[in-house]
C-alpha cells in the first residue's frame, strides 16, 4: 500500500512536470528565441554543404557536418549576399541600411578617428563614415541609427552578443555592444580580428604584449588549451541558461572571430586535413572552419537538451567572401571561392555571395532551398518580424526587405527588386579583380559593375555565368544603360560617398554620366 502510494506520488509529480513543461513552452513564451550565427570571412564554398548546382572541389575538401544538419532542418539560401568587407556588413545587418546609405563603406579602424583607406595616386578619399555606427547623434564620421538588438531589448528580449563586434572605433559609443542594445557582451569590441586564437597566448593579453586586437573577457581560459572558437561557444551557452530558466525570449548574436586571419590552426581538427593532403596553410583554414562548425553543432545540441530547439530560430551567415589574396599578416591565399570570381574586398560574387541557412521550426519547411536573392540589410526587418515586433521607431530609413515571405514559402517570387553594392574605397594597395573603387547592381540575373577608375562597366548574366567571366556589356547596350541609370539613381538618393578625382577636384561621375565603355 505504501509502495503504491509512492508510485502514485511519482506519477502525479511526473504528470505535473510534464504539464508545467508543456504549458511553459507553448503558452508562457510565445515569442521565438533567435540566434544569428555569424561567421567572419567565410567563403560561399568553404563548406561540405553545396550551395551551387553541383558539388565543388572545395565542398569535398571541407567538413562542416553541422551546417549540413542545419540545412536539413531549414532553408538553404543560394543567392544570399553581404558586402565585400566586415564593418559595412555588420552595420547593414543591425541597421537595415545599405552600405551606400549608411556610408560605412569600408572596415573601421579600431583606433579613434583613423580612416582605413589606403592612399591613392588618382583619387582623394570619399567622405565615408570611417568611424562606424553610433547609437547617439553628433559623433563625427559615424552613421547615427537604431539597431534591432535595441528594439528586441525594448520588446522584452534578453539580448546577448558573443564574439567579434567591429561596429565602430574605440572612443565612440558604437564600439561597445552594450550601447547597441545588448544586455550582455562577451569578447566584442572595436577590433576586427583576434590577436591570437590560442588560450596559451591569453588570446593576445599576455603582459607587455597586448594590442587593440587582444580579445577581452576570457580570463578564465588563459593558459588552458581552449581554442578561441571553443571558449566563445562555452560562454555563449552559459549565457543562455538564465533566459531559458526564466522563460524569457533571447536573442543571441554569436559572431565568431573564426575564420578571419591570423591563420591559426584549431588543434582539434588540424591533423586530419594534413592527413587529407592539404598544405599547412590550407589545413589551418580547414581546421578553423571545422571548429566553427562544431560550435554550431554544440549550440544545436544544447538547445535540444534544454527542449527549446523547437522554439528557437537559427540564422547562419558569413559577413563577406573568403580571403582569396595574400593575407595582411602574411602567408599565402588559403581559399579561392571557385566557381566565383575574386574574394573578400571585391564586389564580384566571390566577395559578396555568402553561405546562408535559416532554421525556423514550424514555419520554414525543412530541407528546402531558396534561390531568391537576399542581402544582409534584410536581417533587420526579418528578425523584427520573426519576433512579432510590428510597431517600432528608427532614426534611419530601413532599406532591407523582410525574408519572412520566402521562409514561409520558398517559391515566393519578387522579381522587381534590385540589390546594390558600393565601395568608393581603396581596401587593398593592389587593384585586383573587382577590388577598390567599384559599385554594382544586381537585377534579376543581370549584374552590372561600375569601375570608378576609368568609367568602364562590366555586365554579367549570372544565371549562365556565375563566374563573371564573359562581359556582355558591348552586346547589350540597352541593359547597360538601364542598370547604370538605376544604380546612379539609387546612389544619388542615398547621397552615397564618391572618391574625389585629384586632377579635377570633383567627385567621380555617377555611372549614368560615365557613358558606355
Ligand atoms: Ca569579415
Task: Give an overview in words.
By secondary structure, this protein is of the alpha/beta class. The chain folds into two domains: 5-97 and 146-418, Alkaline Phosphatase, subunit A (3-Layer(aba) Sandwich), CATH 3.40.720; 437-517, Arylsulfatase, C-terminal domain (2-Layer Sandwich). Helix content is 28%, strand content 16%. The protein has 13 helices and 17 strands. The strands form four sheets. Strands 1, 2, 6, 7, 8, 9, 10, 11 and 12 form a nine-stranded mixed beta sheet that branches. Strand 15 (446-451) and strand 16 form a beta hairpin. The radius of gyration is 23 Å and the shape is globular. The termini are far apart. Mean pLDDT is 93; it is low at 1-27. The structure holds calcium ion (CA). Calcium ion (CA) binds next to loops. Calcium ion is lined by residues 40-41, 86, 260, 319-320.
Which tags fit this structure?
about 525 residues, disordered N terminus, Arylsulfatase, C-terminal domain, four-stranded antiparallel sheet, nine-stranded mixed sheet, alpha/beta, Alkaline Phosphatase, subunit A, binds calcium ion, 17 strands
SSE topology sketch:
Layout: H1 2-28, E1 33-39, H2 57-61, H3 65-73, E2 75-81, H4 86-95, H5 99-102, E3 123-124, E4 132-134, E5 142-144, H6 148-154, E6 158-163, E7 184-186, H7 228-245, E8 250-255, H8 270-275, H9 280-305, E9 312-318, H10 349-352, E10 353-359, E11 368-370, E12 374-375, H11 379-386, H12 404-408, E13 418-423, E14 438-443, E15 446-451, E16 457-461, H13 477-493, E17 500-501
Parallel strand pairs: 1-8, 1-9, 2-11, 2-12, 4-5, 6-7, 6-8
Antiparallel strand pairs: 2-10, 3-17, 9-10, 13-14, 14-15, 15-16
The chain binds calcium ion.
Calcium ion binds next to loops.
Amino acid at each position: 500500500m505504501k509502495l503504491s502510494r509512492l508510485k502514485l506520488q511519482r506519477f502525479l509529480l511526473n504528470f505535473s512536470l510534464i504539464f508545467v513543461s508543456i504549458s511553459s513552452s507553448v503558452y508562457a513564451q510565445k515569442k521565438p528565441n533567435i540566434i544569428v550565427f555569424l561567421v567572419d570571412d567565410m567563403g560561399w564554398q568553404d563548406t561540405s554543404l553545396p550551395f551551387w548546382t553541383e558539388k565543388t572541389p572545395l565542398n569535398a575538401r571541407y567538413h562542416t557536418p553541422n551546417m549540413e544538419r542545419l540545412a536539413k532542418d531549414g532553408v538553404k539560401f543560394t543567392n544570399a549576399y553581404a558586402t565585400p568587407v566586415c564593418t559595412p556588413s555588420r552595420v547593414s545587418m543591425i541597421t537595415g541600411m545599405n552600405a551606400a546609405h549608411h556610408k560605412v563603406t569600408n572596415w573601421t579602424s579600431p583606433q579613434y578617428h583613423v580612416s582605413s583607406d589606403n592612399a591613392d595616386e588618382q583619387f582623394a578619399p570619399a567622405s565615408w563614415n570611417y568611424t562606424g555606427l553610433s547609437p547617439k547623434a553628433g559623433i563625427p564620421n559615424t552613421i547615427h541609427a537604431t539597431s534591432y538588438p535595441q528594439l528586441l531589448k525594448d520588446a522584452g528580449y534578453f539580448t546577448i552578443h558573443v564574439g567579434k563586434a567591429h561596429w565602430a572605433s574605440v572612443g565612440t559609443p558604437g564600439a561597445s555592444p552594450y550601447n547597441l542594445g545588448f544586455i550582455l557582451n562577451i569578447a566584442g569590441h572595436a577590433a576586427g580580428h583576434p590577436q591570437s586564437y590560442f588560450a596559451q597566448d591569453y588570446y593576445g593579453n599576455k603582459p607587455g604584449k597586448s594590442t587593440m586586437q587582444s580579445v577581452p573577457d576570457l580570463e578564465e581560459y588563459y593558459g588552458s588549451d581552449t581554442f578561441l572558437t571553443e571558449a566563445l561557444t562555452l560562454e555563449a551557452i552559459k549565457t543562455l541558461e538564465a533566459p531559458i530558466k526564466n522563460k524569457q525570449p533571447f536573442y543571441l548574436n554569436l559572431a565568431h572571430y573564426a575564420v578571419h586571419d591570423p591563420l591559426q590552426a584549431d588543434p582539434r581538427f588540424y591533423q586530419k586535413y594534413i592527413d587529407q593532403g592539404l598544405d599547412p596553410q590550407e589545413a589551418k583554414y580547414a581546421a578553423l572552419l571545422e571548429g566553427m562548425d562544431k560550435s554550431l553543432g554544440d549550440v544545436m545540441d544544447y538547445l535540444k537538451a534544454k527542449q527549446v530547439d523547437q522554439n528557437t530560430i537559427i540564422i547562419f551567415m558569413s559577413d563577406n567572401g573568403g580571403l582569396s589574396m595574400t593575407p595582411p599578416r602574411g602567408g599565402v591565399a588559403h581559399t579561392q571561392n571557385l566557381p566565383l570570381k575574386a574574394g573578400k574586398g571585391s564586389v564580384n560574387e566571390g566577395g559578396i555571395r555568402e553561405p546562408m541557412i535559416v532554421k525556423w521550426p514550424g514555419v520554414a519547411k525543412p530541407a528546402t532551398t531558396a534561390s531568391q536573392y537576399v542581402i544582409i540589410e534584410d536581417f533587420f526587418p526579418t528578425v523584427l518580424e520573426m519576433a512579432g515586433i510590428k510597431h517600432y521607431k528608427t532614426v534611419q530609413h530601413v532599406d532591407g526587405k523582410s525574408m519572412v515571405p520566402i521562409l514561409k514559402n520558398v517559391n515566393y517570387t519578387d522579381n522587381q527588386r534590385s540589390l546594390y553594392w558600393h565601395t568608393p574605397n581603396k581596401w587593398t594597395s593592389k587593384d585586383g579583380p573587382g577590388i577598390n573603387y567599384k559599385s554594382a547592381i544586381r537585377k534579376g540575373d543581370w549584374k552590372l559593375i561600375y569601375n570608378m577608375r576609368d568609367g568602364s562597366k562590366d555586365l554579367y548574366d549570372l544565371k549562365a555565368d556565375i563566374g563573371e567571366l564573359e562581359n556582355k556589356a558591348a552586346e547589350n547596350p540597352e541593359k547597360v544603360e538601364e542598370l547604370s541609370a538605376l544604380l546612379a539613381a539609387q546612389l544619388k538618393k542615398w547621397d552615397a560617398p564618391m572618391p574625389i578625382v585629384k586632377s579635377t577636384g570633383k567627385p567621380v561621375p555617377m555611372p549614368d554620366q560615365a557613358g558606355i565603355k
